[in-house]
Amino acid sequence: MAVDEDAEQEFVPQKKKAASDEEERRKKIVPGSLMKALMRPGGGDSTPADGDQVIFHCTVRTLDGVIVESTRSEFGGKGIPTRHVLGKSKMILGSLEGIPRMLKGEVAMFKMKSELHYGEDDCPVSASDSFPKDAELHFEIELIDFFKVKVISEDLGVLKKVTDEGQGWESPREPYEVKAWISAKTGDEKLILSHAQGEPFFFTFGKSEVPKGLEMGIGTMTRGEKAILYVNRQYLTESPFMPTVEGIEEVHFEVELVHFIQVRDMLGDGRLIKRRIRDGRGA
Predict the structure, then answer these.
(1) Which CATH code is given to the segment(s) 150-275?
(2) What's the CA gap between 168 and 197, in Å, rounded?
(3) Maximum Cα interatomic distance, the chain, rounded to a whole number of Å
(4) Which whole number is the average pLDDT over 198-219?
(5) 10 Å Cβ neighbour count for 39?
(6) What confidence score (pLDDT) does residue 42 get?
(7) Domain spanning 5-148: which CATH class is it, in words?
(8) Which helix (H) or strand (E) holds 107?
(9) Three-state SS at 256
(10) For residue 255, how many C-alpha atoms fall within 13 Å in the half-sphere facing its CB?
(11) CA angle 55, 161, 96 (to 5 degrees)
(12) Cα–Cα distance between 230 and 242 in angstroms, integer?
């Protein structure tokens, strides 16, 4: 894509609510250190905000056009877009400042001085030894989508996007029995498995019958809720539901929580099981 040099936009620090460390980092942005050229306009009028997960492709080039790295398969990447949660994820300073000013579907070229990417002093994001940290570079970013997510694990290894709200307030927990429609896809949306037809998948909460991250996410859902759970590799524990798949960094689980019921082992040895059918009344 051609870049309109006349359309280059100079960045100055954006004034908005942010964590104190981000405010300190933004003070490093000086006129000319971060420039933006629009390559393809986006749609709508809303832009990402703190708490949104942003999904984007990024290709890094030298100023003379040599590709340094890319998420795109046609440029040697894995073809899986990057996901970050604004206000939570560790990001290079140029992306931290630039992406919140983009529209969905927009493609922009950001020209960054070294101190705006991995050359920043105390940069919270590491780069490979071969990365030209001291060079001024072009970062071509396509903002694919953004939306609010619930952070399930503090390390951002499990996130949830609600697509349909459920009913009530109760969520499944150990040792509830759960029925759910579940499909699993790779980060580039290739289907791994699906339990979306026939009978919902049945499992007992707390028995390691589904991957840890999937169970953590379902444990925040209410009856009838539909959600997408983004689960990183460290939470993809082996289970009867899904064996370990080599080479997969993350899995997207599409889940509809159909039903769950409280179960108690009254004697502790499995001989007498109580299932709650309906709540009683009184103290």
Answers:
(1) 3.10.50.40
(2) 25
(3) 77
(4) 95
(5) 17
(6) 96
(7) alpha beta
(8) strand 107-112
(9) strand
(10) 34
(11) 35
(12) 15
